[in-house]
Amino acid sequence: MKRKVILCGLIVVLLCHSLTGAQTLYIDLRKGIALFERTPNLWEVLPVLSTNLRGAPRFEVGITQVYRPPDTRYVLPFLPPVALRLENGLVITNREGYGDIALELPTEKTVFERIKRIASISLPWTFEEKALVIEDAEWLLFLPPYLNYLGKGNLIDQAMSRAKLGVFPLKIPLEDEPLQIEVQVGLSYPGWPVFARLQANQPLTRCLWLEGVNELRSLLDFRKDRPGLYTLTLFVEDIYGRTMTKEVPITISEFKVPVATQEITDKTTVGSRLLFTQRVSGVWNLWDTQIVGTRASLAFPFPGTFDILFTAPKIRIRYHIVVE
Q1: Residue (of 26, 193, 234) closest to 122 by Cα position
Q2: How far is Cα 16 from Cα 319, in angstroms, rounded to an integer?
Q3: Which of 144, 181, 182, 284 could be bridged to 291 by S-S, CB 3.0 to 4.6 A?
Q4: Residues 143 and 196 in one domain
């Protein structure tokens, strides 16, 4: 009898946990965030990278199919995104430009497999001047992780205590902290795109790069054919409407090719092993694999076009291998 009581209690706990939506990923497209339950009562915020959906449609649907990049020890020339296909036909990915909604999916496989449904919601929180305005108590359990996401975790106790009184709307004053940004620009060469890492002390809603008075669609569109020092203007705006402009120097370094590259093309089939030989010892490079010596024996596990680069003093040979 005692065993039956324990079993019934366990079933009730599991049912209650499933009814709380622990397997649902909640997305607010207007706020640009998604939330999922990492552990009971611990919700984590994931940024929405982009969406091509107009407005903020409301839906709650299941996931019909999951696409994941193949597991391989090689570095793929093109990394496919993780994608979730939903019952309503929408596709959610972890990279921009591949689906209807792009967001930072959780990297842990165990957490990712727990997500069974997607719900589009609208959080009833807005900003007025320097205050967070809470319109009603709907989705109030998401307020603490959202405040942590904004860097305002010190306001959680005050916001939740006032919300429990049930008087809405209510305003939570925010500290007047100036917007700060830090830009780190990577190394670039003539004809190459420029990559930069942008860090801000507040979530941003706008980020514009300007070359003189001309607006760039993105920093990747800035390319120069000649080495030199250039200057771009970065304009940003945070979620509180505060703006900042920063002059960012861009260095285009001179690219010197040590020797001319000899090109060789060959064909093979999946699983076949090719033997490459040279008269002198050098380094054979295939993605993350390096072989030192006068010869290299390589097999290819899947079809595609592969580049093997052999380098030695005053020698540079690139093999283009087509695997069928």
Answers
A1: 26
A2: 60
A3: 284
A4: no
